[in-house]
Every structure is written in structure tokens, then in C-alpha cells.
Specification:
Distance between the termini: 46 Å
CATH topology: Tetracycline Repressor, domain 2
CATH class: Mainly Alpha
Number of helices: 10
Shape: elongated
Length: 181
Amino acid sequence: MKQDKETAILKTAEEMVRQGGYNSFSFRSIASAVGIKSSSVHYHFATKEDLGVAVTKFYTDKFISALGSPKSLFENGKDPIVKYVSMFREALEEDKGMCMCGMLGAEADSLPESVVSEIRDFFRRNLLWLNEAYQVKGCNSSQAEAKALQAMAILEGAMIISNTHDDLAMFDLSTQLLVNS
């Protein structure tokens, strides 16, 4: 039961952050959304910083796990970059939300260092994944590193532009080079 409440808290916090950033949630708003008392949120996470660290790690682990292995994707006839782009697109289309760590990254100067450290870990792990994906597709290590950075920048920017205009076609157009490469 403890794990179920904790997971519900993390999922709710993630949803709130993806919609409005770090300051868009409070223990009271999470408790209300989950249907528990605010003290129950405090039981699982003593401070907002603790919850911020946990939700960022939760999001990162879930995202990386959902991607799978670039090598396995490639060996099964799937383009790992297409898979990666589709994860961002699904977030916009189905969840109507931004990349949580992209949202938090924009606020990094005003966040606790422990939360920023987890945001950096999201980007580090994603860049490693993309680097491997590009190497599997035949790029050398320096090409793969550059392409990984470019892909991340394109995707985060495409999400912002598409979300601002409420136009998924803008995301598709912005990411077309990634998908077709």
C-alpha cells in the first residue's frame, strides 16, 4: 500500500510539473489530486526538494526504460532515433505535456541543487542513449556525440514551439530531419 501511494504521488507530481514547472505543485495540491491528506505526502517525502528529486529520478528511469536498448531496436529492424522522437511526440499528443526535465531545465537557476543534479542526470543518460543509437546506425563516436546533442536540442525546442502554438504539425516538421536521417 505504501508503494501504491508513493507511486500515485510521484505520477501526480510529474503530471503537474510537466504542465507548469516546479512551482506548479504543492503537497496540498498533490494530496487533493491523489485523494489523501497532505500529511501523507509528507510521510513519503519530507520536503518539496525531496519530492522534486524523487519525481525527477522517477521520470528519468521510466523514460529510459520505455526506450529500450538502441542496439536491440536496431537489430529488430527499428530505427532507434525514430523511437526516441516518437516518445517526445507521444508526450505532446497523448499526455498534452512537455518533457518534464526540459521544463525543469529552464528553471534550473531557481531550483535546489539536488533537483538540478537529477535533471542533469536525465540529460546525461539521454545523451548517452542517443550517442549509442547514432553509433549503432554507423556514426563514429564524435559524429554520434554531436548528433546526440543536436537531436536533444531539436526535440526540446520542437516541444516548446509545438506546445506554444498547440500545433503538432510544427513538432513533426521540426523533427523531420531526425526521423529521415
